[in-house]
C-alpha cells in the first residue's frame, strides 16, 4: 500500500505563535482532510519522518498527532505498514434533532438497521427504579441493541422498560421494530422526554461493538420517555459514534424581551 503522494502539507500551515499546541494543529489539519474525504479510506499517510520534514516540526510532535488520530478512530497505526486511514467519509451520517423529537426517533428507526444483542428480564437497580418511578426491587426488561446505517454501526443502545409495558410486544419484534413503534403497540406511546447529552470516551465493550478504538469520543444521550399519562415508560442510554451522528437544534429568541432563548419543539 503506497502512501498518498498527492498530500500537500507545508510548514506555513502550522503557527508556532498560536495558542493551540503544534500536535493539536497537525491533528486538526489531518482530521479535516480525512473527514472531507481528501484523504480516503485505506489511504496510507506519509511516514513520521516525511511529515516532520513537510511541516518543519519535531518527530515527537508528529507522532503524538498521529497517535491522537488513532485514539479518535480516524487511523490505524501498525508497525511495518504505517498509518492508514480507517474513516470512510463516504459512509452516511445520521442526523438527530431536538425539533419534533418523537418523529425524528421514529424516522431513525425506519431508516436504520437494528441488531438485538441482549434481552433479559431482571431486577432493576435503584437508579433505574428511580428514573422509571418504580418501587425498588421492581422487574424491568433490559434491552441492548446496535443500530447500523449503510452497514456501518453508529449507535449502541441500552434500554430499560417496565415489565408490564414490555408484555405488550414480543422479543422477536425487538429485532425488527423501533422501540417507539413497540411502545405505541403496547398502549404507551411516548409523548414527551427528558434528555441529557454529554461527551464521553468509549469503554472497551462499547468500542468493540461500534468498531472504534477504546477511548474514542462518543456522544452519550440519556433519555427518559413518558406516555400521555406522564408515566415513564422507557429509560435509554444511547452511545453514538461522533463521526457518524450529529445533533441539531434551532434556537429562537423572544425579541420583545431581548434575553430569552428557547429551542423549537
UniProtKB/TrEMBL annotation:
- Keyword DNA-binding attributed: yes
Single GO MF descriptor: DNA-binding transcription factor activity
List UniProt keywords, sorted A-Z: DNA-binding, Transcription, Transcription regulation
Q: Residue ranges of the HTH gntR-type domain?
A: 20-88
InterPro entries (UniProt xref): Bact_HTH_transcr_reg, Chorismate_lyase_/UTRA_dom_sf, Tscrpt_reg_HTH_GntR, UTRA, WH-like_DNA-bd_sf, WH_DNA-bd_sf
One biological process GO term for this chain? negative regulation of DNA-templated transcription
- Tell me which SMART domains the record gives: HTH_GNTR, UTRA
Pfam families cross-referenced by the UniProt entry: GntR, UTRA
Keyword Transcription on this protein? Answer: yes
Q: What is this protein called?
A: GntR family transcriptional regulator
Originating species: Hyphomonas hirschiana VP5
Amino acid at each position: 500500500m503506497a502512501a498518498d503522494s498527492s498530500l500537500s502539507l507545508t510548514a506555513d500551515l502550522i503557527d508556532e505563535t498560536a495558542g493551540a499546541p503544534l500536535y493539536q494543529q497537525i491533528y486538526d489539519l489531518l482530521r479535516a482532510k480525512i473527514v472531507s474525504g481528501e484523504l480516503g479510506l485505506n489511504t496510507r499517510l506519509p511516514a513520521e519522518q516525511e511529515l516532520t520534514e513537510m511541516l518543519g516540526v519535531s518527530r515527537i510532535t508528529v507522532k503524538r498527532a498521529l497517535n491522537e488520530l488513532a485514539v479518535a478512530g480516524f487511523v490505524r497505526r501498525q508497525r511495518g505498514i504505517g498509518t492508514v486511514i480507517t474513516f470512510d467519509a463516504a459512509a452516511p451520517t445520521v442526523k438527530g434533532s431536538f425539533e419534533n423529537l418523537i418523529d425524528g426517533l421514529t424516522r431513525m428507526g425506519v431508516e436504520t438497521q437494528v441488531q438485538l444483542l441482549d434481552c433479559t428480564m431482571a431486577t432493576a437497580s435503584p437508579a433505574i427504579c428511580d428514573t422509571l418511578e418504580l418501587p425498588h426491587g421492581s422487574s424491568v426488561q433490559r434491552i441492548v441493541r446496535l443500530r447500523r446505517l449503510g452497514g456501518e454501526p453508529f449507535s449502541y443502545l441500552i434500554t430499560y422498560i417496565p415489565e408490564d409495558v414490555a408484555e405488550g410486544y414480543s422479543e422477536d419484534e425487538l429485532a425488527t421494530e423501533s422501540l417507539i413503534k413497540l411502545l405505541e403497540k403496547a398502549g404507551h406511546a411516548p409523548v414527551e422526554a427528558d434528555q441529557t447529552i454529554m461527551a464521553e470516551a468509549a469503554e472497551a465493550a462499547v468500542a468493540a461493538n461500534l468498531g472504534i478504538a477504546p477511548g474514542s469520543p462518543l456522544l452519550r444521550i440519556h433519555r427518559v420517555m413518558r406516555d400521555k399519562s406522564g408515566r415513564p415508560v422507557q429509560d435509554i442510554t444511547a452511545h453514538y459514534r461522533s463521526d457518524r451522528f450529529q445533533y441539531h437544534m434551532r434556537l429562537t429568541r423572544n425579541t420583545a424581551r431581548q434575553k430569552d432563548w428557547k429551542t423549537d419543539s
